[in-house]
Amino acid sequence: MTASGGPLRAAAHAKLNVFLRVLGRRDDGYHEIESLLLPISLADRVTVEGGDELTVSLEGSTADGVPADERNLVLRAAAALAAEAGGPARPGARITIEKHVPAAAGLGGGSADAAVALRLLNELWAIGANREDLARIGLDVGSDVPGLLLGGPAFVRGRGEVVEPVLAQSTTWVAKTFSFGVSSADAYAWWDARAATGPDPGALIAAAEAGNDTLLGSALFNDLQGPVAARHPEIASTIDAFVEAGARGAVMSGSGPTVVALCSFATAQDVADAVPGSFVVDAPPKPSAPARIDTDPSGVV
């Protein structure tokens, strides 16, 4: 992040879901969930600077097809923050997003961008909002935003608004994205048709905190995986390929379709080489890791 007074910049790290447990549909139409989010080293980059109006521009390897109008989560979050902060005289800003995280991939790219934009605009406009205030605003644009605002491993509950930090140990993963996307609305609707809830995640969280990768890899699960993979069999075949290549376990992230595989640091690149289109990420990102990893739209480094 640059010094106050000039443009403010920060990496917006994507996330993976170590598990995603769906408890049921709520009266408000959302779903009650439990999940462990880990930020990963794959990241977009968000820049904000002063401007007369709120605008968003997109560039980067995965920017194609990402809207820059009111459908953009960053613009929606920025407008909500401006409305709350400025009243009739709403502040403006020029926001630039350098995209490297694929959209509609289950990696939370748009929500990560929104979370970082809220933090940067809070500083640019000298609002002084705390993380709880920003999370409340962010929840209206994306259920992953509150968890990603934490900036580290997070156990999230409710529809994503209840966030608790988790002292997860550093892990290495191999990820494979696909050329198609899956909307969260579709994934949850497919789950509704044949609802099934996974096990209590207590042992899995304990394994993540203890650094027991063998147990962690064997316990990965995602309640949305079955319904989504039934319509996109590439997901199941990729999970099988990762395990056959030596991964400790593999699972679909979020609403999909990205598949992530837990690996040892020593074998991760070999696993990635065995499954074309895969790449290695750290979770959470190591301090020495680059702010972003360049990918083409298919996710190949």
Number of domains: 2
Distance between the termini: 25 Å
How much strand? 25-35%
Number of helices: 10
CATH architecture of the largest domain: 2-Layer Sandwich
Give helix and strand order, one letter per element, not per position: EEEHEHHHEEEHHHEHHEEHE
- CATH C-level name of the largest domain: Alpha Beta
Name the average pLDDT: 92
Q: How would a crystallographer describe the biggest sheet?
A: 7 strands, mixed
How many strands?
A: 11
- Low-confidence segments, given as residue ranges, are 289-301
Q: Supply the helix-strand structural class.
A: alpha+beta
The 3D shape can be described as globular
Briefly, what is this?
It is built from ten helices and eleven strands.
Word description of this protein:
This protein is an alpha+beta fold. The chain has 2 domains: 8-165, Ribosomal Protein S5, domain 2; 171-283, GHMP kinase, C-terminal domain (Alpha-Beta Plaits). 32% of the residues lie in helices and 29% in strands. Strands 1, 2, 3, 4, 5, 6 and 8 form a 7-stranded mixed beta sheet that branches. Strand 9 (249-252) and strand 10 (259-263) form a beta hairpin. The longest helix is centred in the middle third of the chain and has 16 residues, at 109-124. The protein starts with 7 loop residues before the first strand and ends in an 18-residue tail after the last strand. The model is unreliable at 289-301 (pLDDT under 50).
